[in-house]
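Researcher: We're teaching a course module on how sequence relates to structure. For the next exercise, students receive a sequence and then see the predicted structure as tokens, so they can try to spot secondary structure elements on their own. Here is the exercise chain.
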Amino acid sequence: MMRVTIEKAGINGEGIAYLDQKPVFIDGVLPTEVVEIELTQSTPTYHRGKVLRRISDHPKRIVPPCPVQAECGGCALMIAEIEIQHALKLEHLKQSLRKYVGRLDFRLIKPIVVNPHPLGYRTQFKLPVQTEDGRLVAGLYAQGSNRLVKAKQCLVHDPGLETLKPKILRILERHGETAFDFTSQRGIRTLVLRGFDGQYQLTLVIGKERVDDALVEDLLNLSGLTSVYISVNTVRQTHDVFGRYAVHRGGAKTLPVELNGLRFELSPMAFFQLNRHQASAIFTQVTSLITERDVVVDAYCGVGAMSLMMAKTGAKVIGVEINPEAIASAKANATLNAIQNARFVLGDAQDVLTPILSQEKVSVLVVDPPRSGLSEGMLEAIQKAKIPTLIYVSCNPSTLAKNLGVLQSLYTIRSITPYDMFTQTPLLEAVVHLTLKTNGS
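Model: And here is the predicted structure for the students to work with:
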């Protein structure tokens, strides 16, 4: 047992203290707190510790409203008031920029855009299923483990998702369904449920079995559940929730959602932002940087939401996406909204950017990459293209800063606008506006 002071927060919301000049990562603590810990892991470069007793608390520490917050680990910052959550996220952004970009005027960082709904904002869940005392249960795996943590209600989920969850599980039980077993390769592996405005789309991720029509019919009798899909995934070591495809079994084929005056129809595997309100704010910000004279390439365009919003300004927009299903959805959404000045190209952005530039005088490039950031190939393509305006939409400050460190020789950072998209978690989104340097300036 030893006493330490928490010096700062880590990228996953954990606290960091120091012993023998090595960091000690400790869950469930905030900067400035003094705690007694025991070490649970020691390596040549770091330690991990577990809190035995808090001696002094951060003045803005709160009791988390979720009873399993400490077990689950999904909402690591739920122990702090919102203003402290914001401060910790912004500090992580600044630390990342210091590390990779170097000297940067932090006045370029705009005030964080606050999430008006700090609870109940998440419009989709993907929950693994297990059997407990003969009953089907769904929850989240505790961080870094395969131990399922279940809660009567996940407070960051849309309440409608949580209302349907137990009803779906009980219907599955009545039809004799069991949790997925790797030996038999049968059973329910994951529940995927997404919904907007009281309409919900369910995908059962299952093993090698047939799902009866009677089960599908009973599920569709649930109030608000408008469509049912199945997807087969029997791969043991995978980060993918879905199998290779999803099969429509009943109800509506797509899920409607409205955003910024546009309507979108979503299939189960099509990505869409999980916080609709903050997504609207981000799309509005990006669109404000576009004029009707622009020719825009929207890399990683998904189902075309941001592409179509930019097209509403009168700009010519070319969306690029590697997922064939997303491209099909994007084209259908353009037709649905009668937008003709946007077209969509299937392919890897790093491969198709140069061919597009041979046909179009592109003035704006928008990139919205996954958490891993821009690939080396995409960074090279951007540097070669020298497009006048670059708008980087990021969901990971660390990879954002790393990419900006590469791009800063060619581009000037004009502004960084952070968004609290996923309140209660350490995650932070940002929109960065960059312009091409001229005459070496």
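Model: If you want an answer key for the exercise: The chain has ten helices and 23 strands. The longest strand covers residues 47-56.
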